[in-house]
Amino acid sequence: MLEPALKEQLKGIFAGLEADFTFDISVSASHESRAELLELLSDVAECSDHITCMVNEGSGLKFTIGKNGKPTGITFRAIPNGHEFTSLLLAILNLDGKGKNFPDEAVCNRVKALKGPIHLVTYVSLTCTNCPDVVQALNAMTTLNPSITHEMVDGALYQDEVDALKIQGVPSVFADGKLLHVGRGEFGELLAKLEAQYGIDETKAETEVKEYDV
């Protein structure tokens, strides 16, 4: 699926990986997109000795990213190609501490102080140009705060959910089943909405600020 030139580029991007990552794939044997998902993730995994694939029988189509044998809270119920391919790459790099899309330390500390647990689900279209920014921001928050989990869902693959939730536009972000945000969104805007809905751990926030001040 991936062009040879892109594979070579990925080998360079992943050359500095330190942790070991696993694509824990759960997909139905009869799913029409099974082969496409497995081919994409296999191609990515071939670009680094630190990335492996584990395939299990499932009822739908999804995969989670594991780090050093532990779950990271990041899930894709989609085949992250097109605009979302970068979201997959950044998720790995951020988890390894190599990412470039984190905000400044003060904002990161606000994320760490969010009260959990928080389960986020973002419905996207793979042709949407605004969706990756939201997906990448929420994945970054998941990396920063272990009480946050985030699923990116391709609405085209889960049309029944889109219909049931009456989703009219993408990206649509749901926080524990409650619609949180629709459309383009910046990191700070999404964080402010999460703070309003879940609150912050004042003790943790004070600790983080003190550490930041030092």
Strand fraction equals 15-25%
Count of extended strands: 8
Task: Describe the sheet with the most strands.
Answer: 8 strands, mixed
Helix amount: 40-55%
Oligomer: single chain
Straight-line distance between termini: 49 Å
Shape annotation: globular
Helix-strand makeup class: alpha/beta
Mean pLDDT metric: 93
**SSE order:** HEHEEEHHEHEHEEHH
Helix count equals: 8
Biggest sheet strand line-up: 2-1-3-4-6-5-7-8
Q: List segments where confidence is low: pLDDT < 50 over at least 5 consecutive residues.
A: 209-214
Cα-based radius of gyration, to the nearest Å: 17 Å
Descriptive key words:
214 residues; alpha/beta; eight-stranded mixed beta sheet; disordered C terminus
